[in-house]
Amino acid sequence: MVGAAMATLGGMVLGRMRASVSRVPVLARRSPSKEVSQPCLKQVMACLPAAMLVINETRGLCVVSKMAEQQFDGDLGSIVRHPAFQAKLDVVLAQKAGNTQPGRVRVILDIPRLRVVQAVLQKQTLPAALLPISMRRENTSPNAQTTLVFVDLYDETDAVVAERQHTDFVAFASHELRTPLAALLGFIETLQGPAADDPVAQKEFLEIMAQQAKRMQNLLNSLLYLSRVQMQEHQKPREAVRLVDLFDQCQTEGDLLAAGLPVTVDVQPPENKSWQVAGDETQLLQVVVNLVENAIKYSLVSEKTKAGKPVSITITCQQAEADQRWPSAPGIVLSVTDNGPGIPARHLARLTERFYRVAKTAAAVQGSGLGLAIVQHIVSRHGGRFVVESAVGQGTSCHIWLPLLPLVADHSSNCHQTVLQT
């Protein structure tokens, strides 16, 4: 279906181009000093509800449709330069005259995020006058012919990610649900047999069964949330999030998480109240909540807490300084720091893997092992960086770098406005 639709759209382009070609020589004679062909190609491409490119015989990118700019944003250069795309372009350009058989290629980008693009390339020979002057060869006459390659792009990322997630979900869920499910079945058999008439054992077993059922529920909720986050990871968030508002919500969530526990959550407002980032406010709040929950859970089982020392968690936001860990662009660093037991250095590199848990604390703390994986995917979607620093006995600091939105002074209202690139 996709290929047929692309072929139809390609036919629309060529049909309109041929209709316009017949008028080019006449227009050229009427106004030889003016660029009469440049609007034609761009106007035709602008009319198409598809992501399309036009490449000339010297591999120059001549025209990009508006939809291609919107859908693929900053990835167009990576797509065109990709070895698989260039190899297929070689094949199409080498076709004999009159052979317009389209070539298809799948381009897979891994950096900065996964993107799978299906490209359909078709070569056509058309008058050079259809190209902007800047894209023509030197001393090209108005009646000369040129070779163009029309490229239809179709984003298959969602379909590929959905397929991977389905496979991963079945594998992970079946593995992680096996233990609590086996426990439930064992207690049910006991209640139906030896403990059928033992009220004390029934009460104890039912409490354990409720805990195991809640564990399965939390695991499924985390898996579903992780799947949703991964589905959106290649879609950059477009809304502006005021960090001062985000930190107000962090204070509310922190108070709820620490209620009734020997835990203090200190939320320090951003240094600059005008700071904003392009993001999904709900997801960014989820990042902070996951980090605070981890800090509380693992700190409460530490020897310091058992000795009576309260758990202290601090949430801060500062402007990013020059650091090899962060990009050179202007940004902020959101940090969640605790005074917990710390994490051995050998585990730090694997903390964001799904279901990975530090062996020493995994037995003492219930969890799915998905919290930091969710954090990593959300941060990646926001174009940020996630770094964990920790030392045994000295606590843990989780740092998140996010790009700042530029501020432009609004002299008419004597204030600042955030400029969000679209």
What is the structure about, briefly put?
This protein has 14 helices and 14 strands. The protein has 422 residues and is of the alpha+beta class.
Description:
This protein is of the alpha+beta class and 422 residues long. Among the domains are: 40-157, PAS domain (Beta-Lactamase); 236-407, 2-Layer Sandwich (Heat Shock Protein 90), CATH 3.30.565.10. Helix content is 45%, strand content 22%. It contains 14 helices and 14 strands. The chain has helices at 2-21, 24-30, 38-46, 66-72, 76-81, 83-93, 157-192, 199-232, 243-258, 281-300, 303-306, 345-348, 359-362, 371-381, and strands at residues 51-56, 61-64, 103-109, 115-127, 145-155, 240-242, 263-267, 276-278, 311-319, 331-338, 385-391, 395-403, 407-410, 415-418. The strands form four sheets. It has a five-stranded antiparallel beta sheet with strand order 2-1-5-4-3, with helices on both faces. A five-stranded mixed beta sheet has the order 7-9-10-12-11, covered by helices on one side. The longest helix is centred in the middle third of the chain and has 36 residues, at 157-192. Mean pLDDT is 79; it is low at 1-7, 16-38 and 408-422.
